[in-house]
Amino acid sequence: MSDLWQNAMDHAVAIARKSGELVREALRDDRKVMTKSSSIDLVTKTDQKVEQLIIQSVREKFPSHRFIGEESVAAGETCDLTDTPTWIIDPIDGTTNFVHAFPFVAVSIGFYVNKQSEFAVVFSCLEDKMFTARRGGGAFCNGEPLQVSDQEDVRQSIIATEFGSNRDVEAVDKIFSSLRNILCLPVQGVRSAGTAAINMCLVASGCVEAYYEIGVHVWDVAAASLIVSEAGGVLMDVDGGAVDLMSRRIIAANNRTIAENLVKEIESFSPTRDDTPPPQVNHY
Ligand SMILES: O=P(O)(O)O[C@H]1[C@H](O)[C@@H](O)[C@H](O)[C@H](O)[C@@H]1O
Ligand SMILES: [Mg+2]
Ligand SMILES: [Mg+2]
């Protein structure tokens, strides 16, 4: 039977590759930085250009589809996931890396129908690694199948996490307290690639056992979540419940045992959800 979404997935791979070329060119010539919510929440013209490129090209081919894009939401678009086919886009995952030429930068495209992930593309454009997954069809890197690590012992694991862009002291204290608990289990190592999507692809590749973060956004994790689950991994909320992509909290792990070990050590908190409507402005 033919795959209903094959055409869309082929387009996602092609446009992610083209976007990656644009990112690589910009890395050589144009990394002018602007800020969003704070002095450490960075955006560049390239983030905006890539998001526009992806949205315009998809709109031409699939006019009825909807979008959730990081830079469109920053510009005031809503962040609602409905049953309509929706492309969830992070044009540059790892903007701070991009600005500093730290070599992990990804273009991330997730595709959801009826709120279920159908396919995913994460292009780690400086490593030239194209990660893909199709629901029920497995996960791949440059066409090679991916499989999570079979490690069951957290003490023999590497855990990835990030510090995010929240510098609120209470949140930073919780982040450090969780990190301290996990380091002192002890685990064999803690790593940060600087991008949620690549951290999760490292889980899918079996290089790290788990990744967790509080403060991510839906566009950071929408694509890589399917890549992790299709590689045999699990997704969990930091309190141990089912993951909710709008909640800005995630554990992506090779198996439940490792994920549950992390749940015990993480001091959780709840950032403002991505699907919270913006405050109403009264024009009297
Ligand atoms: O803003 P971009 O798209 O570069 O993405 C984010 C990363 O992916 C996070 O894991 C990470 O912790 C950062 O906060 C960063 O916001
Ligand atoms: Mg991102
Ligand atoms: Mg981004």
List keywords for this structure.
binds magnesium ion, five-stranded mixed sheet, D-Maltodextrin-Binding Protein, domain 2, binds D-MYO-inositol-4-phosphate, globular, seven-stranded mixed sheet, 8 helices, alpha+beta
Task: Give structural notes.
There is one protein chain. The chain is α+β, with helices and mostly antiparallel strands and 284 residues long. It folds into 2 domains: 2-145, Fructose-1,6-Bisphosphatase, Chain A, domain 1 (2-Layer Sandwich); 154-275, D-Maltodextrin-Binding Protein, domain 2. It has 8 helices and 14 strands. The strands form 3 sheets. Strands 3-4-5-6-7-8-9 form a 7-stranded mixed β-sheet, sandwiched between helices. A 5-stranded mixed β-sheet has the order 11-10-12-14-13, with helices on both faces. Strands 1-2 form a two-stranded antiparallel ribbon. A hairpin with a 4-residue loop joins strand 6 (116-124) and strand 7. Helix 1 (6-29) packs antiparallel against helix 2 (45-61) and helix 6 (196-205) runs parallel beside helix 7 (218-230). The chain is globular, with a radius of gyration of 18 Å. The mean pLDDT is 95. The site of one magnesium ion (MG) has 6 residues, from strand 4. One magnesium ion (MG) binds at residues 90, 93, 196, 219-220.
Strand residue content: 15-25%
Gross morphology is globular
- Radius of gyration, whole Å: 18 Å
What would you give as the CATH superfamily of the largest domain? Fructose-1,6-Bisphosphatase, subunit A, domain 1
Tell me the helix content: 25-40%
Q: CATH topology of the largest domain, anyone?
A: Fructose-1,6-Bisphosphatase, Chain A, domain 1
